[in-house]
Amino acid sequence: MASKRANEELPVIARFEVRRRNYLAPDGSIDRPLPAFATDPKLLVELYRSMVLLRLFDRKAVALQRTGRLGTYAVSLGQEAVSVGIASAMREDDVLLPSYRDNGALLWRGVKLEEILLFWGGDERGNQFSGPVHDFPFCVPVGSQAPHAAGVAYALKLRKEPHVAVCMFGDGATSKGDVYEAMNFAGVHKLPLVFVATNNQWAISVPLRLQTGSETLAQKAIAAGFSGEQVDGSDVVAMRAAAEEAIAAARDGKGPHFIEAVTYRLGDHTTSDDALRYRSAEEVQAHWKEEPIARLRSYLVGQKMWTKADEEQLAAECHERIEAAVERYLTTPPRRAETMFDNLYADLPEAYAAQRRELAGEHDA
Amino acid sequence: MPEVTLVEAINLALGRAMADDPDVVVLGQDVGVNGGVFRATVGLQERFGPERVLDTPLAELLISGLCVGMAAQGLKPVGEIQFMGFIYPCLDQLVNHASRMRNRTQGRLTCPMVLRTPHGAGIRAPEHHSESTEAMLAHIPGLRVVMPSSPERAYGLLLAAIRDPDPVVFLEPTRLYRAAKGEVEDNGEALPLDIAFVLREGRDVTLISWGAMLKETMAAADKLADEGIAAEVIDLATLKPYDESTVLGSVAKTGRCVIVHEAAHTGGFGAEIAALIAEHGLSSLLAPVIRVTGYDTIIPMARLEQRYMPSVGRIVTAARKACQYN
């Protein structure tokens, strides 16, 4: 007891706090006054349409995988608001460094549906995409794009370009040194870099409580010397607002920010996973009450910004767009085998020329 | 021409590359004010400022990952890892990202980066400071692995590595940093990558090596000459991709080959060269290919490191054996 009292007499040298942001409640009602952009019905409807397209596209992709026409695929079911909300706040010149569950961001930034299918269908040309030419492809090894994001942001700052890097990863990635090393460096140099951790509660079968002893993921930013916040990741208005503020501040030279988007992965980790092995159907069912699409729809319908006819028309448009993309994907012939050498180096070294010729069916004398 | 040490040649090349191209950035631990633990970057921060000569936090993975991000943005980062024993956290970045960025984006993004690190033993350094694991790196498609063996080649090859549009791991022979001296004109002229250098011509036996071991290999060639054996000495210089035709051409001429490297025997890069000769040069062989290498054990600390590394005597014995084989 004596030592406890003595400790209480020691001065507090630092205090930290983490705030949580949300606007739309799960039933679509308003928890607090909406940010300025949300007065624009066109933008809200655009966010809604993008999330619906992503969900329907995911459904089609899984069907393709189940029928042997696509490789392993990762759906965004339940967390569509994160990638769509973040990307909607970015400018084209900003640089996206996505993980493999951020298709919503890629689509918003101009990547074509068939390009995403090409990638997951096992064709590198899917990464030679129609999105901004400087955007990174999906990072498959978890979290290892975070140091790239720091390098990108450093380059932007060095050249005094008014652009921002946005690095997206999941809760599992926050356990990796890669992410912490990048955050630490971003803090040192006050880089124009926004980290977005999609906390969907599960890293394949490992729940968040086994991932970290931290109360929030957002507080990890504090150790790196910048701010972090928790955001309702199933509220696209909150995601967009958090991203808008963070990106504007970073562009303004105020340094990095960390957004923890708290959401839930309603689907399996990928088409190769069966989530019922490690979590109950009841748990998943409960989270369906929070999902982002129904939430925004309730709000839009309540505000008379969206009707049943709009919904039907959107479904038909999405269907048409997706089917056309699937057709283009399925009719894209594979690359010629020897092209596996064509982007290995800028110029293929002489040492590998014979191997390329062998693949091309040309035989050396 | 001024005579400089190998580490001074590295410094000259870095300074020249930075002066020529504002996109060149140097980063690593202690590379700024301190000028690097071996002084390879000395004076650069004063000349080019702390934004382009950047002291990073103590995190090797970060250094390599920063290089990937900077390179994708069009910078030409030159990262320094203080010793090869500390390069392993970078392997994920080298294998999964640097070497395949061009391929996985089909040329949309590229990775013109250089990762420099001292290579090899022989300076009585602490544990983990004497590694030579170049074969591990030379196995990675999409990467270049380059190792100079003289100040002249350090200067010219480093300039080439920095200008190269693809990722290069540049391994610098620690033992020669100050021991090797030579004339280097700071004229900005690069030497070609992917090309082996014939350091000495001879008709009786081909000696192939790279990096610091060329010192012993050249000394062995002198001794062999005293015995009337004319050794041809090849500095491989670029291990990935390597100059197969110079190797095969030399073996076609001599019919006998000894490969010398400091790294452990099994799975070392010598095995690759021996396999190349077996596949494509068998008919010209007059004797089995012999490897003179480090042993298949952990590189010992200072007291025994000299016993681990190939000696002039071991190389001479092997070459003699190759020449006596009938």
From TrEMBL, chain B:
SMART domains: Transket_pyr (SM00861)
Superkingdom, natural source: Bacteria
Cofactor: thiamine diphosphate
Location of the Transketolase-like pyrimidine-binding domain: 4-179
Example of a GO MF term: oxidoreductase activity
Keyword terms, alphabetized: Oxidoreductase, Thiamine pyrophosphate
One Pfam assignment: Transketolase_C
PANTHER family membership: PYRUVATE DEHYDROGENASE E1 COMPONENT BETA SUBUNIT (PTHR43257), PYRUVATE DEHYDROGENASE E1 COMPONENT SUBUNIT BETA (PTHR43257:SF2)
Name of the protein this chain belongs to: 2-oxoisovalerate dehydrogenase
Originating organism: Bradyrhizobium macuxiense
